[in-house]
Amino acid sequence: MTNLFEFLNSSVGKKWLMALTGLFLSLFLIVHVSGNLALFKDDGGLAFNQYTVFMTTFPPIKVISYLLYATIIIHAINGFYLVAKNMKARPVKYEAKKNNTGTTWASRNMGILGTILLIFIATHLIHFWYEYKFGEMDWKTYVVEATTDNILKEEVITAADAKAQHLKPATMDYMGNKIIICKDLYGVVATAFKDPLVVAFYVISMLGLSYHLLHGFQSAFQTLSIRGKNYQGLIKGIGTFVFAIIIPALFAAMPIYFLTR
Amino acid sequence: MSGNMNLTLKVWRQKNAKESGRFETYAAKGVSPDMSFLEMLDVVNEDLSKTGIDPIAFDHDCREGICGTCSMYINGRAHGPVKGVTACQLHMRSFADGETIIIEPWRAAAFPVIRDLIVDRQAFEKIQQAGGFVSVNTGSTPDANSIPVSKVNADEAFNSAACIGCGACVAACKNSSAMLFLSAKVSQYALLPQGRVEAKKRVKDMLKVHDDAGFGACTNTEACEAECPKGISVSNIARLNREYAAAMLVGE
User: Fold this and answer.
1) B216 CB near a chain A CB, below 8 Å?
2) Scanning every residue of chain B, which has its alpha carbon at the shortest distance from the alpha carbon of A17?
3) Residue B252 reports pLDDT greater than 70
């Protein structure tokens, strides 16, 4: 155990912690973006709202979600610690403008990019996660034909009514149809993204995410010393195209979709 | 002489480690483009001493690019604008007539300025002393081929051993991290069977001294590799990370 603590206290160990937590968060992004693609389905929010019920009630996902909160906190605190320590390593700055040959802008600004993302995550959680767990929001009832999945009827239950009736998410069979009752997070999302300022904040944050992952993904592999002539290109390729382009672009498309709809 | 240049130098002057320093501006007149950067400073110093000003103190030794002594941060780059050279191998033809050149010492908490452009690089010696060696019992010389070494590993170890400990990696790194130096020193032994014997203890001890000396951590910007006069690769840092994790977490 003492070895583990000494490891985590060393500069290399702290980088390992940064890399492992970072890769776990990257993996989460794949899940998050795939699930949220349900937002693009024009079905009054049925698919998305059902997905949120699954994500908040399925026990393994609940366990992973706590692991995820812990990972975000560890990644952020460890990151701030490293930035502070690294700044202390050069108390007197250079006079001449530093020539940054061989480096990328992203690699030199991971702390700033990370801070943007932390502010974003806090805002994002207050917007939706807190609202869903503790806030008072409208509910929705869908009547779906069991055989064809066609939505026959959808109805909004106001927050006040839902509170008075102590509603719980439920799916019931009723005369060959399914009745689905769930919180209308889709509605909250659609309303929030009608505000151009909110959309701008989200899009800018996703630009930050893009740059953070452009360096972060491949840097994690270097830290974990997974590096070789044969797959170096593959790692950089995945980091660039999947994590720095496709994922942030899909995320950014969501608020833009609701703003322009 | 025709073709000679006139330059303006903005040089860091600091009496000793305790006093605070400042930039002073000097004119370097009639500089030949064929001079090395250090020769240019020699000429300027000669002029300075004639006018009663203390010459600019700077570290130098071999003047042929292999000792790593001439530590200078020139115009925002360790060892100046040319890739793969030390300051003594940098020639004035790399600068334009009339140019202003900013000359600073390496900046790092672990490398305190002693005087002007000279920094104390004992931190590197301490890292080296913590494990950058192979313990050998004295006795008769062993047979040359008693321990087989693959050609690939021998070449890689030799590449790592090319590090001259100049400190350009620290100077170029935004975190003043000495990971490239440390990893080269760890690698040159880790790659060879003779070095494997003490590998775990070596990497543990050397990294501890590195961290305690006040060097920063690695952000993988790879500025060090770009500025290293000997072309040491950051693949050494990956190897260091692996060696350290294995030493700390796997086995005893």
Assistant:
1) yes
2) B245
3) no
